[in-house]
Amino acid sequence: VTSPGRLRPRWGRRLAVAGAVCAALLAGGVGTAWAHPLHTAWAELTASGDGQLRVLVRAFADDFSIAAARAARRAPPPDHSVTDSVAAAYVGQALQLTVDGRPVLLQLVGQVHDGDVTRLEFRASGVATLRGAVVTNRLLLELHADQVNVVQARYDGRAFTTMFSRGSERRDLP
Amino acid sequence: VKTRYLLAAAAMVLVTGAVVLSSTARPAPAAVAVHRPDPLADSTARELDIALFERRLREDPWSAADRSRLAALYLRRARETGSFADVVRAEEQATQSLAQRTGHNEATWSLLASARLSRHDFTGALRAARAVMAADPSLPAHRGLLAEVLLELGRYQESDSLFRTLGGDASSLGSASRLIRWYELGGHLDRARVLAGHALRLATDDRELTAEQVAWYHLRAGDLEAKGGAIDRGDSLYAAGLAVNPGDYRLLAARARLAADRQEWKEAIGFGERAIARQLEPGTLGILRDAWAALGDSAQAASYAAAMTASALAQPGAIHRAWGLHLADHGERLADVLARVRREQRDRRDVYGYDLEAWTLHAMGRDAEARRAIDHALAHGTEDAVLWYHAGAIEAATGDSAAARMHLTEALARNAWFHPVRADSARALLAALGGPLAPRAAEGAGR
After folding, report:
1. Is the N or the C terminus of chain B less surrounded, counting Cβ atoms within 10 Å?
2. Structural Rg of chain A based on CA atoms
């Protein structure tokens, strides 16, 4: 096995700084978010104007795995993996988009794991704009009472961000 | 031992003196970027390191050194991504490492203390800091760690005694960071600003630091400049930090806060939305709520308010301070905020805990109690315009006009842009009390 010293000659120096920096993070206030872990999932909806809609979803892998497995009435796998079909089914029911009164069908393009996070990409066609669209976001709300979801929508050359939580699960995009 | 301390202290005084002198001659840089680390390369290397040590521990679970290194890597990833799960993992690994070996493993106590501080387990952090101190009290790093934990617990006399034994050593980034915090809380804001500029120069010259670490020193220097009223310089430092570590959610949140303080609402929303896309942070939610409300979009403001309501008090443990102040500012959930802050005060009686208690009591109309709490908050001499504004408002409510005028004047003199709304409230209250009200442009000379 490669020794850490040979692998990363600067590694020890970084660790020496890490301890002090971490503790001093309390000073800035923003670091205190660690003491208050927010349960959150993020989604970005981008209508490119040519009828193509891209939806990116980012969630903590453990939460997403549990929620998707429960929705499929399966036991959550210990490695937090989710099959494409289970992931697509869960997001399809928890994140819904209606444009001009018609529901938009999201097709899963792929999913990747990055550390603790699962990223999923969906596509849909026939969506020229999101103006007036209705977004319903219940992602992981069934797991945590304090779950807060963020949706960022990009369309018509503008960006719009809004929040979803229990009891506040539906938004009209301006 | 005493002689050794005295000699060390004398040497350190010289070091600090040199730092302050050189820093005075060369003010805190508005934008220093000598060395530009690569955030993508950093995160790739970090993941490789984590995978390596996880694998090594599967092969040899009895390596205390590997557990310690893995703990440090988890802690680093937590800082970079905001993952709370990584803080928990770091604490578990550090605890296991120390269970396997305590000898020649002092650095792991520091990691354990850092992980516990990160999740506000102050008494747990204190146990770890005392353990490392017991291992070798002659080492400045050990005394510094204990001093830092005591500082956060509000045990200022004990903390001050330990910090004094360090003699003001600012020769390393770690020791400088601790001293900055000590000066900041202890009524030496200008000294903290100078030292933060020095630490930033050290960090930007250090090719071994990651982008996130360098950005953090920009954040600290910017925070202190902004706190001192030099908000343009603070904002420049934040911007320079973002050039080093683009997408750093802490710096984006800081820029959102400064923009809101200047009532530049659209800018505040732009930075705030970029920040929460990376990491949902309670203070930023409050800024976005206020910004949308100021722009007249009540639906958007309500969505952020609902998000805060859903999550603010659903969590166990102490309340987030910025969150608590936001709720007190809006007169919401006051009884809950008060109960939580008082629960936290069983273990931690620091300046900002008393401040939150006082401001919440004031919002509840319990001004006599608020006055007692704010007097505790002021006792340590912390220079902070928000703190002084709270003091002034509470003193005015209790009929102590002289004290109120003094604190309101101090607040505006220190930082005329200390809050999006409360700075104007301070001016109005000061005018009503008959105090001098300088023109806003003159107050903001520090910009």
Report:
1. N
2. 19
**Helix H or strand E segment including B216:** helix B211-227
Chain B, residues 127-166, CB within 8 A of chain A, namely: 144-145, 148-149, 152
Token pair listed for B140 = 């400045």
H-helix or E-strand containing B252?
Answer: helix B249-261
Closest by CA to B407, choosing from B420, B20, B328, B422, is B422
Residue A107 φ/ψ, nearest 5 degrees? -105, 125
Tokens, residue A90? 């869960």
pLDDT digits (tens, 9 = 90+) for B378-426: 999 999 999 999 999 999 999 999 999 999 999 999 999 999 999 999 9
pLDDT in tens, B247-283: 999 999 999 999 999 999 999 999 999 998 888 878 8
Residue B52 to residues A6, B46, B70, Cα–Cα distance (Å): 12, 10, 9
Rounded to whole angstroms, the Cα distance separating B193 from B183 reads 9
Q: What is the dihedral of CA B263, B269, B271, B273, to 10 degrees?
A: 160
Scanning the structure block, which residue is given the tokens 């045990």? B155
Residues in chain A closer than 8 A to B45 (CB atoms): 8
- Give the pLDDT of residue B86: 87
List Cβ neighbours of B431 (8 Å cut-off, separation of 6 or more): B437
CA dihedral A29, B382, B128, A17 (to 10 degrees): 60
For residues B204 and B360, give the distance between their C-alpha atoms in angstroms, rounded to a whole number: 41
Cβ neighbours for B226, distance < 8 A, ≥ 6 positions apart = B234, B235, B254, B258, B261, B415
Interatomic CA distance for residues A51 and B333, integer angstroms:
45
Cα distances from B62 to residues B98, B101, B250, in angstroms, run 11, 9, 37
Write a three-state SS string for B128-171. Answer: HHHHHHHHCCCCHHHHHHHHHHHHHHCCHHHHHHHHHHCCCCCC
Q: In three state form, how does the secondary structure of B309-323 look?
A: HHHHCCCCCCCCHHH
DSSP label at B409? H
A5 in contact with B, Cβ within 8 Å? no
Nearest in space to B28 (alpha carbons), one of B145, B147, B189: B189
Q: Are B394 and B374 in contact (CB under 8 A)?
A: yes
CA B420 to chain centre: 20
Q: Residue A33 has what DSSP assignment?
A: G
Element containing residue B68 per DSSP (H, E): helix B64-81
Spatial CB neighbours of B112, under 8 Å, sequence gap ≥ 6: B71, B91, B94, B95, B98, B125, B128
pTM value?
0.83
Number of H helices, E strands in chain B: 24, 0
B15 CB burial (10 A radius; 0-12, 13-18, 19+): middle
How far is Cα B170 from Cα B44, in angstroms, rounded to an integer? 32
Are the Cβ atoms of A29 and B321 closer than 8 angstroms?
Answer: yes
B148: nearest CB among A23, A31, A116: A23
What token pair was written down for B398?
Answer: 């209790």
- Chain B residue numbers with beta carbons less than 8 Å from the beta carbon of A116 are 81, 83, 85-86
